[in-house]
Amino acid sequence: MPEMHFLVRWPDGGEMRCYSPSLVVREHVEVGRAYSVAEFLALSRATLEIGSERVRAKYGYACSAAMDQLALIEERAAGYLPDAPVVVTAFELPPGFEASPRAGERPADGRAARDGEAGRG
Protein backbone atom coordinates (compact mmCIF):
# COMPACT_ATOMS: atom_id res chain seq x y z
CA MET A 1 0.00 0.00 0.00
CA PRO A 2 1.66 3.27 -0.99
CA GLU A 3 2.14 5.46 2.04
CA MET A 4 2.82 9.18 2.09
CA HIS A 5 3.57 12.12 4.33
CA PHE A 6 1.98 15.56 4.35
CA LEU A 7 3.62 18.62 5.83
CA VAL A 8 1.65 21.26 7.71
CA ARG A 9 2.38 24.65 9.22
CA TRP A 10 0.51 25.38 12.44
CA PRO A 11 -0.76 28.83 13.48
CA ASP A 12 2.39 29.49 15.54
CA GLY A 13 4.62 28.81 12.52
CA GLY A 14 5.68 25.38 13.75
CA GLU A 15 5.77 22.59 11.20
CA MET A 16 4.78 18.95 11.44
CA ARG A 17 5.44 16.00 9.13
CA CYS A 18 2.39 13.74 9.19
CA TYR A 19 2.12 10.09 8.10
CA SER A 20 -0.68 8.46 6.11
CA PRO A 21 -0.80 4.74 5.27
CA SER A 22 -2.41 5.52 1.91
CA LEU A 23 -2.55 8.28 -0.67
CA VAL A 24 -6.10 9.24 0.35
CA VAL A 25 -4.91 12.54 1.84
CA ARG A 26 -4.49 13.92 -1.69
CA GLU A 27 -8.23 13.48 -2.25
CA HIS A 28 -9.17 15.65 0.73
CA VAL A 29 -6.60 18.40 1.22
CA GLU A 30 -4.69 20.73 -1.10
CA VAL A 31 -1.08 21.85 -0.86
CA GLY A 32 -0.86 25.58 -0.24
CA ARG A 33 -4.38 25.89 1.13
CA ALA A 34 -5.10 27.25 4.59
CA TYR A 35 -7.69 25.41 6.68
CA SER A 36 -9.07 26.37 10.05
CA VAL A 37 -7.75 24.16 12.85
CA ALA A 38 -11.25 22.71 13.23
CA GLU A 39 -11.54 21.90 9.52
CA PHE A 40 -8.01 20.48 9.33
CA LEU A 41 -8.73 18.28 12.35
CA ALA A 42 -11.92 16.95 10.74
CA LEU A 43 -10.13 16.28 7.44
CA SER A 44 -7.24 14.57 9.24
CA ARG A 45 -9.65 12.32 11.16
CA ALA A 46 -11.47 11.37 7.97
CA THR A 47 -8.38 10.69 5.87
CA LEU A 48 -6.45 8.80 8.54
CA GLU A 49 -9.48 6.68 9.41
CA ILE A 50 -9.98 5.87 5.71
CA GLY A 51 -6.30 4.98 5.39
CA SER A 52 -6.44 2.80 8.48
CA GLU A 53 -9.52 0.99 7.15
CA ARG A 54 -7.72 0.36 3.85
CA VAL A 55 -4.97 -1.33 5.85
CA ARG A 56 -7.63 -3.35 7.71
CA ALA A 57 -9.20 -4.45 4.43
CA LYS A 58 -5.81 -5.54 3.07
CA TYR A 59 -4.14 -7.02 6.16
CA GLY A 60 -6.96 -7.73 8.63
CA TYR A 61 -5.98 -5.10 11.22
CA ALA A 62 -6.20 -1.34 11.52
CA CYS A 63 -3.14 0.85 11.02
CA SER A 64 -1.86 1.81 14.46
CA ALA A 65 0.60 4.30 12.91
CA ALA A 66 -2.32 6.23 11.37
CA MET A 67 -4.13 6.33 14.70
CA ASP A 68 -0.93 7.43 16.46
CA GLN A 69 -0.56 10.23 13.90
CA LEU A 70 -4.15 11.30 14.45
CA ALA A 71 -3.53 11.46 18.21
CA LEU A 72 -0.51 13.72 17.63
CA ILE A 73 -2.53 16.01 15.34
CA GLU A 74 -5.37 16.18 17.89
CA GLU A 75 -2.92 16.98 20.69
CA ARG A 76 -1.27 19.76 18.67
CA ALA A 77 -4.61 21.18 17.49
CA ALA A 78 -5.87 21.45 21.07
CA GLY A 79 -3.43 24.31 21.65
CA TYR A 80 -5.01 26.63 19.08
CA LEU A 81 -8.28 28.44 18.53
CA PRO A 82 -10.60 26.47 16.21
CA ASP A 83 -10.55 29.18 13.53
CA ALA A 84 -6.75 29.66 13.50
CA PRO A 85 -5.12 28.78 10.14
CA VAL A 86 -3.25 25.55 9.38
CA VAL A 87 -1.53 25.35 5.98
CA VAL A 88 -0.73 22.11 4.17
CA THR A 89 2.70 22.96 2.74
CA ALA A 90 3.70 19.80 0.87
CA PHE A 91 3.04 16.16 0.05
CA GLU A 92 5.84 13.62 0.19
CA LEU A 93 4.80 10.84 -2.19
CA PRO A 94 6.32 7.53 -3.23
CA PRO A 95 8.46 7.72 -6.36
CA GLY A 96 6.37 7.95 -9.51
CA PHE A 97 3.22 9.43 -7.94
CA GLU A 98 2.03 12.98 -8.51
CA ALA A 99 0.59 15.36 -5.94
CA SER A 100 -2.99 15.28 -7.19
CA PRO A 101 -4.83 12.02 -7.84
CA ARG A 102 -6.21 11.19 -11.25
CA ALA A 103 -8.42 8.35 -12.34
CA GLY A 104 -6.27 5.52 -13.61
CA GLU A 105 -3.09 7.19 -12.40
CA ARG A 106 0.00 5.03 -12.81
CA PRO A 107 3.42 5.49 -11.25
CA ALA A 108 6.31 6.20 -13.58
CA ASP A 109 7.15 2.48 -13.81
CA GLY A 110 3.70 1.77 -15.33
CA ARG A 111 2.23 -0.32 -12.51
CA ALA A 112 -1.42 0.33 -11.72
CA ALA A 113 -1.75 2.85 -8.88
CA ARG A 114 -3.61 1.32 -5.97
CA ASP A 115 -3.58 1.14 -2.21
CA GLY A 116 -2.70 -2.53 -2.11
CA GLU A 117 1.05 -2.74 -1.85
CA ALA A 118 3.36 -3.23 1.11
CA GLY A 119 2.64 -0.75 3.85
CA ARG A 120 2.91 -0.36 7.57
CA GLY A 121 0.21 -0.59 10.15
Would you kindly provide a written description of the structure presented here, covering whatever features stand out?
This protein has 121 residues and is of the alpha+beta class. It has two helices and four strands, in the order E-E-E-H-H-E. The protein has a four-stranded antiparallel β-sheet with strand order 2-1-4-3. A hairpin with a 5-residue loop joins strand 1 and strand 2. Helix 1 runs antiparallel to helix 2. It is globular and about 40 Å long. It starts with a strand and ends in a 29-residue tail after the last strand. The C terminus is likely disordered.
How far apart are the first and last residues' alpha carbons, in Å? 10 Å
Class by alpha and beta content: alpha+beta
- The stretches of 5 or more residues where confidence is low (pLDDT under 50) are 103-120
Summed up, the helix count is 2
Query: How would you spell out the order of helices and strands?
Result: EEEHHE
Approximate strand percentage = 15-25%
* Radius of gyration computed on alpha carbons: 14 Å
Helical residue percent?
A: 25-40%
Question: In total, how many beta strands?
Answer: 4
Order of neighbouring strands in the sheet with most strands? 2-1-4-3
- Give the biggest sheet: 4 strands, antiparallel
Q: Let me know the average pLDDT.
A: 86
The coarse overall form would be globular
